[in-house]
Amino acid sequence: MCHFSRFFAFRRFAQCSLFLILLAASLVVASLQAAESPAIQSSPMSGGDGAVEQFDHNAYSLPLRNMSMTKRLDFSVGNSFFRNPWVVAPASTEARDGLGPLFNTNSCQGCHLKDGRGHPPMGDETPIALFLRLSLPSDQAEPETLEQRGALPVPNYGLQLQTSAIPGVQPEGKLVIEYRPREVSFADGHRVTLQEPLYSIAEPAYGELPNTLLTSPRLAPPMIGLGLLEAIPEADLMAAADPNDTDGDGISGRYNQVWDVRSGTTVMGRFGWKAGEPSIEQQSMHAFAGDMGLTSRLAPQTDCMEIQGCDAFADGGTPEVSDEIADFITFYASSLAVPMRRNMDDPEVIQGAETFNALGCASCHTPRHRTASDAPRAALANQEIWPYSDLLLHDMGEALADHRSEFQADGREWRTPPLWGIGLAQTVNPRAGFLHDGRARTLEEAVLWHGGEAEAATQAYRHLPADQRAELIRFLESL
User: Could you say which residues form the signal peptide (predicted)?
Assistant: First the structure.
């Protein structure tokens, strides 16, 4: 009898183990089906034929490898305007004068350090790579204002807090960031302490800020692969949207609809933390206007308000960013290459990719896309790329919510950021932070902040054994 009991106990154990194995396998298959492309990347060429083998602090700063030599000269000229500081007008440096009067930084490189992501300020540092978007509740705005500007400007302050100014002008105020600890526990007893940022504005210089003020911190994102993202067919991105979650998988991505200045129409947004910009060109010119106080033909007005008296100071011409410079900057921003994948044959990386799929991460971080065959530049056309993003808006939960809308994006939605090159982020900038405001100091912290549509994946991560969690991070570091 004792032997029979042991036999049946063993059989039940074997059946249970087999069931768990089959269940795990079915979860992997289901998540692979949910994500249109598998996360098991087949080629190290994340950025297509233009990917580069560069893994040091310059990993984000190289031109597309498949770009012609003649175009590399345009890239170098664009790089000079991206890297070098702009100065106060009038100046002998006529091509780069007109800074301010109000601004956040004096160069593109000031925010996008080495073309990478920025970092939050430490201590009493003046923030450079992190700024604060401002607005009032959208129900106070005329529909036309929301259609063309995306949000309602704050009287006397506009749509962005400018924390620096030229001599003789007061900055709008000081951005103050305080952190409070937030502990997360894992199923195995492991604990991680996150830092939750609290934002406020001290010393407002142009009148009292309204009680209904809405704010949203924004960290400078990496610049790599933007031209490839712009070349993904719009129809492919629209096809992946599921705003009503009709397939019942808990993922309801949708695309933002934003104002395109050049065409004068509403189009799909794909750039910025809330996909609030339709093109690299418009994103770049709005950054000149908002971050540096520089006008261009596409953005002829800066964020300076009438009370601030900016018109009383010398400008750098009309427009300050000439069409020629704007073209060079746009070309440069669309031509930065993506580093190749590393350690793809490492068993831990391979297992981490499978876990990435099994948790459902690929449902939003869509691994693979193909750029349009009729892209405007040959170097960007018909490329198989692995950005790990659907470029759609997703509800990321209350912990990451800014409660500020931008065009169609609501206060809990963020665009899925591409993950390619993320393992080199802190090689390029050792102080780089993750997520929209840099609050996450590590990739694991970034995972743990995910909520909303990603809540189930985050909870599943917290229940993984320590070795599987490490494998997932190893996978992310390989990208």
Answer: 1-34
Sign of CA dihedral 406, 409, 410, 415: negative
In percent, the amount of the chain with pLDDT more than 70 equals 92
pLDDT in tens, 36-51: 445 689 999 999 999 9
pLDDT tens-place string over residues 248-273? 999 999 999 999 999 999 999 999 99
Number of Cβ within a 10 Å radius of residue 153: 17
pTM of the predicted model as reported, rounded to 2 decimal places? 0.91
Burial of 121-135, coded b for 16+ CB within 10 Å and e otherwise, reads beeeeebbbbbbbbb
What SS3 state is found at 123? coil
DSSP structural state of residue 342: -
Q: Quick: pLDDT tens for 368-412.
A: 999 999 999 999 999 999 999 999 999 999 999 999 999 999 999
pLDDT in tens, 212-222: 999 999 999 99
3-state class (DSSP) for residue 120:
coil
With 0-12 / 13-18 / 19 or more C-beta atoms within 10 angstroms meaning exposed / middle / buried, residue 378 is exposed
Closest of 175, 413, 165, 477 to residue 303, by C-alpha: 165
Show Cβ contacts of residue 125 under 8 Å, excluding neighbours closer than 6 positions. none
At 369, phi and psi to the nearest 5? -140, 165
Q: How far is CA 74 from CA 55, 107, 156, 230, 327, in A?
A: 24, 19, 39, 19, 9
Q: Are 335 and 227 in contact (CB under 8 A)?
A: yes
Q: Which residues pair with 257 in a beta bridge?
A: 268
The amino acid that residue 152 corresponds to is L
